[in-house]
Task: inverse folding
């Protein structure tokens, strides 16, 4: 079997973080989401992995490389424009050949990996298997309808009256017949070749499409709130370790990970939290559900339930930062200038919450 990861798209819901960076490389618990997807496929015993890339191809290639660190062989497939998931399959024909494969959206985080899914598909003669999960508001998702024998018979995008509460997760198994499907369907009203249309084509032409019901958590990290939710869930599953330095004046509880070269000086750190490589926490408070990536400085400040990306500085901030996603090479400091004022340089679609007069 082979793996196909979709790592194109513009990531508009994560602007301004993704104006200059691939959304799949945003870290969750100090590891890019794309790396977690590669590991899930590798752990399922698949070594040949294709990654469909778009405008951020150079950045993805630089971060991932040849795949040797995962014991995998990576092939990059360029998608000139975001023309749909089925289009991504179509342009991957040379890589996929006639092999069965798993297709995984590169910005999804799923609990427990996909090994059991891979084994189930390998041991059956189904033409496709789609990962589904039960959701509270199926009208907000693509939803599957099944027959009495458990076969998927229809996929409906955001139905007003959902036939079930089983939503598509973004992980798909296919055999070679999917190529006939993606070459037969027409673009949707969005101008894209939709994977749901391709799967429906398989169903309508007598091919067997089966569900795989995922019972753990699953999150699409495409928006800041979802990213923070995923970060918290992954942090809770980490095995804590202290590889950095913690001085005697600091309080660090048993759910904290401090990576190699990290320093925690005269600070309080409460987990689940991860402090990245060569990051310094000085005279500060870091609260639960916070991931601070490598080469960051936090000094005389407080932060919790947040993600801070690499090479950023938070120094002398007089109020606690929480529920925030802070990008790369960011500096947040208290200005010495008078009169007292907030001085901000923000990208498009940024969101800032300010405390005014203590309220």
Result:
């Amino acid at each position: 079997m082979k793996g196909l990861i979709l790592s194109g798209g513009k990531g508009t819901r994560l602007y301004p973080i993704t104006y200059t960076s691939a959304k799949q490389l945003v870290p969750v618990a100090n590891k890019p989401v794309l790396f977690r997807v590669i590991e899930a496929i590798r752990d399922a015993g698949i070594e040949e992995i294709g990654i469909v890339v778009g405008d951020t191809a150079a950045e993805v290639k630089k971060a991932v490389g040849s795949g040797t660190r995962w014991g995998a062989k990576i092939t990059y497939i360029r998608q000139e424009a975001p023309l749909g998931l089925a289009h991504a399959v179509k342009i991957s024909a040379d890589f996929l050949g006639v092999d069965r494969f798993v297709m995984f959206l590169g910005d999804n985080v799923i609990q427990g990996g996909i090994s059991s899914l891979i084994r189930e598909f390998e041991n059956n003669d189904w033409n496709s298997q789609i990962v589904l999960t039960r959701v509270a508001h199926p009208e907000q998702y693509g939803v599957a309808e099944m027959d009495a024998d458990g076969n998927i018979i229809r996929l409906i995008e955001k139905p007003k009256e959902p036939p079930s509460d089983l939503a598509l997760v973004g992980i798909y198994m296919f055999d070679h017949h999917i190529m006939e499907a993606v070459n037969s369907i027409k673009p949707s009203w969005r101008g894209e070749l939709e994977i749901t249309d391709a799967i429906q084509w398989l169903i309508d032409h007598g091919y067997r499409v089966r569900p795989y019901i995922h019972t753990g958590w699953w999150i699409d990290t495409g928006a800041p709130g979802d990213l923070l939710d995923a970060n918290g869930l992954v942090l809770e599953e980490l095995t804590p370790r202290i590889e950095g330095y913690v001085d005697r004046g600091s309080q660090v509880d048993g759910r904290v990970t401090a990576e190699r070269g990290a320093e925690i000086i005269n600070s309080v750190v409460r987990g689940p939290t991860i402090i990245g490589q060569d990051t310094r926490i000085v005279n500060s408070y870091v609260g639960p559900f916070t991931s601070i990536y490598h080469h960051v400085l936090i000094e005389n400040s407080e932060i919790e339930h947040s993600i801070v990306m690499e090479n950023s500085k938070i120094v002398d901030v007089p109020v606690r930062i929480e529920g925030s996603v802070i990008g790369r090479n960011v500096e947040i400091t208290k200005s010495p200038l008078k009169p007292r004022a907030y001085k901000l340089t923000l990208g498009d679609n940024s969101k800032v919450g300010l405390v005014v007069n203590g309220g």
